[in-house]
Amino acid sequence: MVEKEISQAVISRLPRYFRYLGELKDNGVERISSKDLSLLMKVTASQIRQDFNNFGGFGQQGYGYNVEYLHNEIGNILGLDQKHHLIIIGAGNLGQAIANYMNFERRGFIFKGIFDSNKELHGKEIRGMVVQPMEEMPSFIKENEIDIAVLTIPKSAAVAVADKLVQCNIRAIWNFAHVDLTLPGNIQVENVHLSDSLMKLSYNINRFEPEPADNLE
Amino acid sequence: MVEKEISQAVISRLPRYFRYLGELKDNGVERISSKDLSLLMKVTASQIRQDFNNFGGFGQQGYGYNVEYLHNEIGNILGLDQKHHLIIIGAGNLGQAIANYMNFERRGFIFKGIFDSNKELHGKEIRGMVVQPMEEMPSFIKENEIDIAVLTIPKSAAVAVADKLVQCNIRAIWNFAHVDLTLPGNIQVENVHLSDSLMKLSYNINRFEPEPADNLE
Q1: What mean pLDDT value characterizes chain A?
Q2: Residue numbers in A near B80 (CB within 8 A)
Q3: Please, are residues A171 and A187 in contact by the beta-carbon 8 Å criterion?
Q4: Which H/E stretch holds residue B175?
Q5: Which phi-psi region, left, alpha or beta, contains residue A197 (left: φ > 0; alpha: ψ -120 to 50)?
Q6: Alpha-carbon torsion A213, B190, B134, B140, what sign?
Q7: Could you write out the DSSP letters of every residue in B3-37?
Q8: Which of B17, B155, B189, B203 is the mutation pick for testing A, counting most A CBs within 10 A?
């Protein structure tokens, strides 16, 4: 689709642009300059222009960007104009939290099924989906044209389940298990390591020690 | 503590080093060269050396790095040798998932309390913590020396709650609400936007269209 190879660093920033432009649009803003967008998003205007130039620049800078147009274009680049069918593997709290998050559906990510190896969860209903045993997964993926699997299972089970998903011709895995999945090149993986961001927070707390407290009693 | 200003990009990579080194250590590996570490982690050896040079380099390259020493040092840099007291605000599925994730405690992140504005959840027990009303939060923070608040509440409530937390002299907010919190400079914030990574996955799926399927029936 896009001919030029765009760096993953640029791609990583697109959802944030999309989010801010969506809010501007909802607030009735029609045009915005790269300078105002940079102030709002706390990145440099030159970064914004460089990022956008990867996609042709999105219109004349002199007049600012057309917010709605830019929001749509970035959404299309992100593939949000297309529908994706997802399954969740792991019906614990995290799996349930993701299943219940309405905004994903709004962006075209449709949850079709949820699976768990724990028999006690089978039959439980989560947002209209009945938790199914793992054995049902391969046929379900085929019948429901599932392209994304969300892994919310412990690290110990994740690699074996991912291998199974590869056999099922899944196209992408959104992985919350605490292990980096490395899969064949045609399968896309996003590893989400929640504790990584908590550790970064911990570093920054220690880095910025508070002033001696004046308000101690 | 650290005199030189280290870029947040470097800091963002430290938890991943910490994770890989922990696994090597658990597997009994005593030393590893930057080259072998680079193959394992799929980053360049020069990136690793550059990152480590920010902290003095961590020992002689010729012999490789001492895995246990390096793991400990990076853990200390991340502040994992210290205990942090946390509260969770929002006792829904995501808040419960985080409360139940044992690995955080192992790293010194101790969950002390959980709060929600929903009366129906008050009194419910989550991993030994009783869900409390929001009104109890300020005194609880003070009495339990809470330094980190985890926000697992909708976007609409997040900004007001964050302001309240600032008044309570919280030191850091780990924010899962779908809005970038910008707070006074002495308060550390990590915004975790789950849908951003899902959108990146969506981009990459579209970017790498599958080969024409040979296995269609």
Answers
A1: 89
A2: 199, 202
A3: yes
A4: strand B172-175
A5: alpha
A6: negative
A7: -SPPPHHHHHHHHHHHHHHHHHHHTT--EE-HHHH
A8: B203
Chain B: closest CA distance from residue A105 (Å): 11
Q: Which residues of B touch A147 (CB under 8 A)?
A: 205
Q: List, for residues B121-151, the tens digit of each pLDDT value.
A: 999 999 999 999 999 999 999 999 999 999 9
ipTM: 0.87
Helix, strand, coil share (%) of chain B residues, nearest 5: 45, 15, 40
Locate the chain B residue with the closest alpha carbon to A100: B93
A109/B206 Cβ within 8 A:
no
Taking a C-beta distance cutoff of 8 angstroms, is the pair B189, B182 a contact?
Answer: yes
**pTM across the whole model:** 0.87
Interface touch B215/A169, C-beta < 8 Å: yes
Side chain identity at B178, as an amino acid letter?
H
DSSP secondary structure, chain A, as one string: ---SPPPHHHHHHHHHHHHHHHHHHHTT--EE-HHHHHHHHTS-HHHHHHHHHTTT-SS-STT-EEHHHHHHHHHHHTTTTS-EEEEEE--SHHHHHHHT-HHHHHTTEEEEEEE-S-GGGTT-EETTEEEE-GGGHHHHHHHTT--EEEE-S-HHHHHHHHHHHHHTT--EEEE-SSS-----TTSEEEE--HHHHHHHHHHHHHHSPPPPPS---
User: Do B84 and A210 make contact, defined as CB atoms within 8 angstroms?
Assistant: no
Answer yes or no: do B97 and A93 touch at CB < 8 A.
yes
User: How near does any CA of chain A get to the CA of B62, in Å?
Assistant: 28
CB contact under 8 A, A15 and B211: no
Q: Which of A15, A103, A207 sits opposite B200 (nearest CB)?
A: A15
Q: B208 versus B204: which is more confidently predicted?
A: B204
Shortest CB distance from B198 goes to which of A104, A196, A211? A104
Instruction: Check B200 against A84: CB less than 8 A apart.
Output: no
Chain A residue with the nearest C-alpha to that of B187: A205
Q: Could you tell me which of A130, A189, A185 has the C-alpha nearest to residue A158? A: A189
Q: What is the mean pLDDT of residues A99-109?
A: 86
